[in-house]
Specification:
The protein is mainly beta. It has a single domain, classed as abc- transporter (atp binding component) like domain (Coagulation Factor XIII, Chain A, domain 1). 15% of the residues lie in helices and 56% in strands. It is built from one helix and eight strands, in the order H-E-E-E-E-E-E-E-E. The chain has one helix at 2-21; strands spanning 29-33, 37-39, 43-52, 56-68, 71-82, 85-94, 107-116, 122-133. The chain has a five-stranded mixed sheet, with no helix packed on it. A three-stranded antiparallel sheet has the order 1-3-6, with no helix packed on it. A hairpin with a 2-residue loop joins strand 4 (56-68) and strand 5. The longest helix is centred in the N-terminal third of the chain and has 20 residues, at 2-21. It starts with a helix and ends with a strand.
Length: 134
């Protein structure tokens, strides 16, 4: 009886681990902002959560927002070592000032991220929209 219970626990654990490690990369990461609407010059708090199936060193993280041509007005580049399981990364960006001179207008904007592992392998990427007001 005891052996059967232990076997069931081991099989359940193996099944659970198999499910965890089969999570597609697109579902391993999420980008969260502290709110949905920002004013010019305001601080945006960004939380990037990533579930890693293993320890990964030297992960390149790119966060970028408000694109004009080939240029992003806001960008972050970071390198981190990720541990197996849930990793929570926090960043801040200051919103640019809206003006005709800068070429930034009010309205819906996009913030995106990309996480690259060894050899440039894409671990995760995603985006989110927010509103920028003058």
């Amino acid at each position: 009886m005891r052996e059967a219970l232990m076997l069931m626990i081991i099989l359940f654990t193996l099944f659970a681990l198999q499910l965890i490690f089969q999570v597609p990369p697109s579902e391993r990461a999420s980008l969260m902002l502290n709110k949905e609407e920002y004013k010019s010059g305001e601080i945006m708090d960004i939380t990037l959560e990533y579930f890693s199936p293993k320890n990964v060193e030297n992960v390149e993280i790119y966060i970028f927002a408000i694109r004009k041509g080939d240029h992003y007005y806001l960008s972050i580049r970071d390198v981190r070592n990720l541990t197996m399981g849930l990793n929570q990364l926090n960043y801040t960006l200051r919103m640019p000032y809206c003006s005709r001179c800068s070429g930034i207008s009010e309205g819906e904007k996009e913030i995106a991220f990309e996480m690259l592992g060894e050899n440039g392998e894409v671990l995760a990427r995603g985006n989110k929209t927010f509103m920028l007001k003058a």
